[in-house]
Amino acid sequence: ALKALDVFGAKPILVSAYDLAETRRTKEMVRRLKRQRKKDSIVLLDSGNYEKFRLDDSKWRMRNFHRVLAMELHDLAFSFDDLFPTGSPREIAAASVRAVLRDQKLTRAPVLPIAHLPRNRAGEYRVELAPELLFRISDSLQPRMIAIPERELGASLFSRVSTIREIRQKLQELNYYQPIHVLGTGNPITIALLTAAGADSFDGLEWCRYVADVTTSTLHHFQHYELFQYQDELATSPIALEAAADPKVDYAGKTVFHNLDFYTVWIAKLRAAIQNERRLVEFMTKLLSEEAMELAKSTLTGVL
Length: 304
Prior knowledge:
There is one protein chain. The protein has helices at about 1-10, 25-40, 50-55, 60-70, 90-105, 130-140, 155-170, 190-195, 240-245, 250-275, 275-285, 290-300, and strands at about 10-15, 40-45, 75-80, 110, 145-150, 180-185, 200-205, 210-215, 220. It has about 300 residues and is of the alpha/beta class. The protein has a 4-stranded parallel beta sheet with strand order 1-2-3-4.
């Protein structure tokens, strides 16, 4: 994935500290990250705790993260977060602040907080605590951005959009604008609705797990690229154009460059659309069916 991003010339890159651990990183990975930073790309370092949880790797600990953090291969870094916090918003926020200040001692780059929500006895995230939690963390640190995983925002798309809306409304009580980053979000419809609700940036793996239909801005199985390969004739990236025509580039490579070109163009259109309400509604109308758009407008009050 890092090689593809480097070749394509992606500007923002998120890399997990887990993949940069001594037993997993390669000299080529380090060289590529250094080269990307010299080309003015922004490298954001994640804590590696998502991989620890997903792979059930008990060996990944704070000291492993700190070794990677001290390598200074990044421009920004998320703190070593606690995925299973307990307590009140005040207590969880205080712990998040301490984590950022602790990790900041090991790097010159800004360290950013990740907010995680506690769960109730049924194992469900206590979504109602999100606005206060993010407000307290932001008020203490005034970070360049504050992150929260999409999966913790609610069980459904509309509930997640509503939660971001409530978080943004609470953050407006601050005397500065606090950017919100949503972790694990790469679906275009989700990105667009969360942006309309007040989120600012996102990261996800959809670009290397699915294939995008440029015409409808929808995602399909990775194996369906051949159905959309014709769209590469109109790609804006010379890398995507060359990859589509080069028989030496394998199927996965063609698909990934197709997706990266789609996301680059599509995000630029979304940024332009959010400049005013009318353009945003027009953008969403092209993205959703008439019925879905009406449902979203009636359900997500204040968003569309």
